[in-house]
Amino acid sequence: MIIVMKPEASSVEIKEVCSKLETLSFSCHVIHGVNQSVIGVVGTITDELLEQAQLWPKVEKAIRVGKPYKLVSRECQPEGSVVKVGSVSIGKEKVVIAGPCAVETEDQMLKTAEAVKKAGANMLRGGAFKPRTSPYAFQGLKTKGLELLSEAGRAYGLPVVTEVVDPRDVEIVAQYADMLQIGARNMQNFSLLKEVGLTRKPILLKRGLSSTIQEWLMAAEYILAEGNSQVVLCERGIRTFEPWTRNTLDISAIALAKETSHLPVLADPSHASGKRSLVEPLAKAALAAGADGLIIEVHPNPDGALSDGPQSLNFEEFERLMARLNLGEGV
Amino acid sequence: MIIVMKPEASSVEIKEVCSKLETLSFSCHVIHGVNQSVIGVVGTITDELLEQAQLWPKVEKAIRVGKPYKLVSRECQPEGSVVKVGSVSIGKEKVVIAGPCAVETEDQMLKTAEAVKKAGANMLRGGAFKPRTSPYAFQGLKTKGLELLSEAGRAYGLPVVTEVVDPRDVEIVAQYADMLQIGARNMQNFSLLKEVGLTRKPILLKRGLSSTIQEWLMAAEYILAEGNSQVVLCERGIRTFEPWTRNTLDISAIALAKETSHLPVLADPSHASGKRSLVEPLAKAALAAGADGLIIEVHPNPDGALSDGPQSLNFEEFERLMARLNLGEGV
Amino acid sequence: MIIVMKPEASSVEIKEVCSKLETLSFSCHVIHGVNQSVIGVVGTITDELLEQAQLWPKVEKAIRVGKPYKLVSRECQPEGSVVKVGSVSIGKEKVVIAGPCAVETEDQMLKTAEAVKKAGANMLRGGAFKPRTSPYAFQGLKTKGLELLSEAGRAYGLPVVTEVVDPRDVEIVAQYADMLQIGARNMQNFSLLKEVGLTRKPILLKRGLSSTIQEWLMAAEYILAEGNSQVVLCERGIRTFEPWTRNTLDISAIALAKETSHLPVLADPSHASGKRSLVEPLAKAALAAGADGLIIEVHPNPDGALSDGPQSLNFEEFERLMARLNLGEGV
Amino acid sequence: MIIVMKPEASSVEIKEVCSKLETLSFSCHVIHGVNQSVIGVVGTITDELLEQAQLWPKVEKAIRVGKPYKLVSRECQPEGSVVKVGSVSIGKEKVVIAGPCAVETEDQMLKTAEAVKKAGANMLRGGAFKPRTSPYAFQGLKTKGLELLSEAGRAYGLPVVTEVVDPRDVEIVAQYADMLQIGARNMQNFSLLKEVGLTRKPILLKRGLSSTIQEWLMAAEYILAEGNSQVVLCERGIRTFEPWTRNTLDISAIALAKETSHLPVLADPSHASGKRSLVEPLAKAALAAGADGLIIEVHPNPDGALSDGPQSLNFEEFERLMARLNLGEGV
């Protein structure tokens, strides 16, 4: 930690800060600059100490030198993690997860599973518990939805991923799903993060729509700290002032998350944009920037979907997209 | 709902959109503009229909005319709500809730309760379950914290409010607290919203740090839709690009929430800024803009606090602030 | 400047960084931390050096210790500046500047000047050169507008302020106006800042809608650096994700600008919100937060205005507002 | 234009709005909805009318149906524009513009021109007039810089582009440069836009760091409206809350600008990120999303650069990047 003293701090006041820290077993090195002094503090700094130090008399600011995350960092594990979901190895091969936003009917799920399998997808997605902005919107089929998703995945040999929104549902969702998704709105639902950290299921952790990359890594750290290291990150767009897209896909975050962390990183071009016409350019861009794969909304009949129609592709559009992504034997 | 057709839409294509809607029992009125046509659709529009309509052939956009919230709106209830918490009437008198970010010790809580009572506060706050960005930071005393908070409140005749972060904890927190707080990070934790909606406790609903005012009202709507109408809104700053404050207090949101909704609105100048020196100007500004009260962090010894020290006031600072706010007999 | 070395930096590599800096006459103090080392660099650091240092081998980051602004800082001048515009002393008394967004006719200006004078305003505003998002929107009456504004101000003893948007117009605008306004879109138009810095006219410097407080102070620094210290800052809202207001008035920025700088600070509640109903709560809030005054749009007939009608008050509304602001003999 | 009336508007009040509009020669069509009525207004709507209508009694809001830009739209010109700069055809072939942020010396420019030409770049960039946040930072070599840039371009057969920041400099810059750049900070410097619109030089128009895509297109419209249709757009990152990158490259904006407008679109991965390690992933992503080319900072010795070192590539890094971009005969 570096403590920057205010220009008017006297040498006595600087010494008082050092005494306080030395009592706590830190060692201090004072550097007298042209206008103000700084104190280099050596030792393991907690968040609490960092915050408190800002309040001490004549302290201008306290700056953390190290990083607040540990287990998720590249420094902790230099080689990239591979997260296995059934036969799929995320982080090793380029992966495409496809399916509808919400599970609606058996027919919808079986047809979608067949179509996305044929087009080359590796995993099936579908929401059974839907977090919706309005209490009056369709909230998902719940357990019935889990059954339909699981059944469709098994029928076509596709591992399935679905969102869990309540710590009390983790057990039941884990019975049906091969991978659990933490949605953007729950990225800092720490009770839920701890609960999925206690399972041994792979976790797909979406970035919160106004979370910094560091907060996203800290959310992953919660899961790893509970003992579950099977975490895959997913960039899905952040909230900005631009009204023409639902969110702004933060393409740099994909590259930075991979640079900073050993966890695999997927991108969700469907939710990021909220627009069908943008799915293809964003999907290509995400792969070009180094994403380990994509999660894409596909629906047999998007303009009759019960949720998130505007960004869903139909089967033909998805097949064309997969051909253009040209993932080759990679997938 | 207004459907704007693309300029190239033919009259046959416009008719097809109308037929589709008329089959669903809506009535349609087409207006042919200079470059493009619009269709006025009369009937009760669901979120799903609004989304789907955007996807129909030659549709440029679909615009909702009405508002997605009902129970929280001024139109539903023109006079302002008064939420009673013990002897305190939020929405009727100007209210000040004060106390530490986190409950730490019995001594801390009793001293704080005494000091804030003496300075004129109406309610006591203190966190027992703390949502923290880092899994390695202090997470609160949990049930022990609830006991200490409740005891201190009773000792000085102050109703208490504390945050609940997990639907499984709602019952225990409701046993100890007079009012339950939903924190900013959980504003769209819909499981939690529904759970507190099933209690008959007053709820303090903080605005999410990247939530629009409409999303905030929709979160309140979740609670009212479950049958609990005792909801108080709290503006606590939004995330922007400005790095000199932790968040940007959205002062307009206070006035707009009161204009649009009948629910009382408080402001949290401590969390909004993250800076002790800003608490006073922001507190005054919030009251001037029409807030029904304030929630302010007070700690016996802020530079030794286990959480959020930089924005906490000590007893003397709080007493001086209360004198300057000049709430008079209003409190 | 503090240089944080990467954890893997060897002691030879740390020495190389120090040698480089010592050649440039800086003195270096190395502190070896638990995981990584930091170098305290003493001497006057330029922006260029700060940027370059980030690129040197094994450097993780370089952090500036001091502040990049000088002349505008409270440290440079502890007491607040008073900027005189005619008989008005901004920074000493609370000031209200009122008038239409755009100068339209002689009758409009004379009536407005009379009405705002009567209601207690101290200065008259009106745009002759209008920066408009669309090339097809009304761009202002230019020199004719300056004449009408100046005439109306003289008729009622009100100093006048108007925006200048082009360095080539500074001379002509300075002939007619008592104070020159730099608009939000031109806050980083450095050519224009330098040009008005060469005049001896008071300058009203609006904050850019996506500028940090520090960038705003740096823009003021440009003007002071040219020799003109008569600068008044004006907070007018920043761009955020919230769609219900045109901009988000950053109420904290008012307090922070006054804390950090000796320059007076006004607020513009009309532009910040873009909504007539918000002018009063925002005006009160800005004064409560410590603003030295307000700039408010007033128009004889807002729903017939050629520019920015939705946020303008009519005479009766302005008079009522002034009564409620209760500025007393302050004005 | 669609006017949405408030729910409480009476039929008399609705008729009054219609009468007002019919007097102005618009035709009105009223649709009575379940809760409120809307009026479809047919005719050519100005910005002024749209704003005024919002203020009329009992009007809830007024919504524009058409688009505010004309000349830049795909509807105006369905096929993509090709902008010729010397022998380079932007919009037809994939183009790479490379060079230093600031022109510093003859040697620097000649070496850079040679290196980027050899690596496959099509055009040379370099700043002679530098907009800098601080008045104390290097402001560019001005006319001397223009000479050095032009000389280096001619020596290696590379057309040159450089920024112009002041309308008074347009003439001199146009004498030396093959293409004029409008920087992000000047995107809404309308005097400058009009001035470059009067030249017959190709213009590179960077997106403002907090400008919406629509505002960016409107800025281009200013140039086209003056008669200069040789405009190339350039996405360079927007300001968001994320602190790990200087700006957030808005990858969707590239696809949307091409979808909505016929103008070519470049991307600037160097400025967007401010980080050398991100230049390659962002460059690849931008091309994958459909960008017509890139503008990349290259400097012989980035850690000695006078401006923007952290994001500049050295010659070897640039050569490697070009090889990996695999532009083939495309360039």
Describe this structure in words.
The structure is a homotetramer of 331-residue chains. Chain A is 34% helix and 18% strand. Chain A has 2 domains: 2-63, Alpha-Beta Plaits (2-Layer Sandwich); 83-329, TIM Barrel (Alpha-Beta Barrel), CATH 3.20.20.70. The longest helix of chain A has 14 residues, at 106-119. The first copy, chain A, contains 11 helices and 14 strands. The first copy, chain A, is elongated, with a radius of gyration of 23 Å. In chain A, helix 3 runs parallel beside helix 4, helix 3 (106-119) packs parallel to helix 11 (315-325) and helix 6 (190-197) crosses helix 7. Chain A is of the alpha/beta class. The mean pLDDT of chain A is 93. Chain A has an 8-stranded parallel beta barrel with strand order 7-8-9-10-11-12-13-14, surrounded by 7 helices. The first copy, chain A, has a 4-stranded antiparallel sheet with strand order 2-3-1-4, with helices on one face. Chain A has a two-stranded antiparallel sheet with strand order 5-6. Chains in contact: A-B, A-C, A-D, B-C, B-D, C-D. Chains A and B meet through helix 2 and helix 7 of A and helix 2 and helix 7 of B.
Element layout with pairings:
Four copies of one chain form a homotetramer.
Chain A: E1 2-5, H1 11-23, E2 27-32, E3 37-42, H2 47-53, E4 59-63, E5 83-85, E6 88-90, E7 95-99, H3 106-119, E8 123-125, H4 143-155, E9 160-163, H5 170-176, E10 179-182, H6 190-197, E11 203-206, H7 213-225, E12 231-235, H8 251-260, E13 265-267, H9 269-273, H10 276-288, E14 293-297, H11 315-325
Parallel strand pairs in A: 7-8, 7-14, 8-9, 9-10, 10-11, 11-12, 12-13, 13-14
Antiparallel strand pairs in A: 1-3, 1-4, 2-3, 5-6
Helix pairs in contact in A: 3-4, 3-11, 6-7
